[in-house]
Design brief:
Largest sheet: 8 strands, parallel, barrel
Bound molecules: ligand PBG
Mean pLDDT: 97
Low-confidence stretches: none
Number of domains: 1
Number of helices: 11
CATH architecture: Alpha-Beta Barrel
Radius of gyration: 21 Å
Order of helices and strands: HEEEHEHEHEHEHHEHEHHEH
Distance between the termini: 38 Å
Oligomer: single chain
Number of strands: 10
CATH superfamily: Aldolase class I
CATH topology: TIM Barrel
Strand order of the largest sheet: 1-4-5-6-7-8-9-10
Helix content: 25-40%
Shape: globular
C-alpha cells in the first residue's frame, strides 16, 4: 500500500521497466520496406549539388542517383520517388513530357540499375518544369488552368510509364487528375502502372526547402489548388474523389502537422495510406540537431514512429536509407 492510500491502484510502469519489456510491448514498429526515399536528379551536372536547406540531401547526377538507388535496395528500402530538375524550363513545362527529359531518363537509369527490386515512383507534376513554377499551365489571366493542365498530366503519365515507372505520384492537386491519368495509362497499355494519389495535400510553409531542391521559380503561392491548413472535411472529399477516380494508394502531406488527417483517412479507406515527411520537417530536425538543441537520431525515429502510429502504412522520408540501415542493425 502506498502512503497515499488508494493510489496508485495500478502500475503501468511495470511494462516500461527494461528495454526488453518495452520492445516486447511496443505497438508500433518501423520496417525498412515501408520507407520511400524521395530523390532529386538534375540535368546537366557532373557532380552532385548539395541542397543547403536540406543538409545531407543532394541534387543527384544520373550516376549518383543510380548509386543511391542501389544503396536503397541494399538497405531494404521499399521505394524511390523521383523528382527531375531540367536545364530548361518553359511556360508549359515541355521537359516533363519529353521522352528524353531528365525524369524519364532517370527512370530508365534506375530501372536498369535495380529492376523490380525497388518500387520506382515518379512525381507527376509540372512545377519542376515550368518557368513560372506553378504545378499547372496558366490561362490568359495568369491563373492555373485546371483542365488544360490535365491534358499535360495525361501526357506526363504516358512518358513516365513508357520509361518503365511502377507508380506515378500526381502531386499537383488539380481536380480530376487521378481519373485522367488512369485513363491515359489504361489507354496506352499501362494498366499495371499504379497511382499513388497525393490526396490530402495542404499548402504549407514546410515545402520551403523543396523549392531550393528543385530550383523552383515560383513567385506567390499555391493556395488556389492546395488545401487550406484550416480544413479537415475537404480531405475526406478529396479522398472519396481520388478513390472513385482509381487511386491505388493515397497520401497525406505534410505529415507531422496533419496527423489528425492521416488518422481519419487511415480509418476510412481500404487502400494503402502513405504520409510524406516533407523537406521542412527534415530541415527543422537537422537544423535543431546541428545547433545541439535536440538529439537528431532519436527525433528522427520518434517522428517516423508517430507518423506510423497515426496510420501511415508507408512513409516518404529523406532519411529512408539511413533509417532502413539502422533498422537492419536491429534498432
Ligand atoms: C510538387 C511537390 C512539392 C513537393 C512534392 N511535390 C512542392 C510543392 O507542392 O510546393 C514538396 C516535397 C517536400 O517539401 O519535401 N511537385
Amino acid at each position: 500500500m502506498s502512503v497515499y492510500g488508494r493510489f496508485p491502484g495500478a502500475r503501468p510502469r511495470r511494462l516500461r521497466t527494461t528495454p526488453a519489456m518495452r520492445r516486447m510491448v511496443a505497438e508500433t514498429r518501423l520496417h525498412p520496406a515501408e520507407l520511400i526515399l524521395p530523390a532529386f536528379v538534375r540535368e546537366g551536372i557532373s557532380a552532385p549539388v548539395p541542397i543547403s536547406a536540406m543538409p545531407g540531401v543532394v541534387q543527384h547526377t544520373r550516376n549518383t542517383l543510380r548509386k543511391a538507388a542501389a544503396e536503397a535496395v541494399e538497405a531494404g528500402v521499399g521505394g524511390l520517388m523521383l523528382f527531375g530538375i531540367p536545364e530548361v524550363k518553359d511556360a508549359v513545362g515541355s521537359q516533363g513530357t519529353d521522352p528524353n527529359g531528365i525524369l524519364q531518363v532517370a527512370i530508365r537509369d534506375v530501372k536498369a540499375e535495380v529492376g523490380d527490386d525497388l518500387v520506382v515512383m515518379s512525381d507527376l507534376c509540372l512545377d519542376e518544369y515550368t518557368d513560372h513554377g506553378h504545378c499547372g499551365v496558366l490561362d490568359d489571366d495568369g491563373r492555373v488552368d485546371n483542365d488544360a493542365t490535365l491534358e499535360r498530366y495525361a501526357e506526363m503519365a504516358r512518358v513516365q510509364a513508357d520509361a518503365g515507372v511502377h507508380v506515378v505520384g500526381p502531386s499537383g492537386m488539380m481536380d480530376g487528375q487521378v481519373g485522367v491519368i488512369r485513363e491515359a495509362l489504361d489507354g496506352t497499355g499501362h494498366q499495371d502502372v499504379a497511382i499513388l494519389a497525393y490526396t490530402a495535400k495542404y499548402t504549407s510553409a514546410f515545402y520551403g526547402p523543396f523549392r531550393e531542391a528543385v530550383a523552383s521559380s515560383l513567385k506567390g503561392d499555391r493556395k488556389t489548388y492546395q488545401q487550406d491548413p484550416a480544413n479537415a472535411r475537404e480531405s475526406l472529399r478529396e479522398l472519396a474523389l481520388d478513390l472513385e477516380e482509381g487511386a491505388d494508394m493515397v497520401m497525406v502531406k505534410p505529415a507531422l502537422p496533419y496527423l489528425d488527417i492521416l488518422r481519419q483517412i487511415a480509418d476510412t479507406v481500404d487502400v494503402p495510406v502513405s504520409a510524406y515527411q516533407i523537406s521542412g520537417e527534415y530541415a527543422m530536425i537537422e537544423a535543431a540537431a546541428e545547433k545541439g538543441w535536440i538529439e537528431r537520431d532519436r527525433a528522427i525515429m520518434e517522428t517516423l514512429t508517430g507518423i506510423k502510429r497515426a496510420g501511415a502504412g508507408t512513409i516518404l522520408t529523406y532519411w529512408a536509407t539511413e533509417v532502413a540501415r539502422r533498422l537492419q542493425g536491429g534498432e
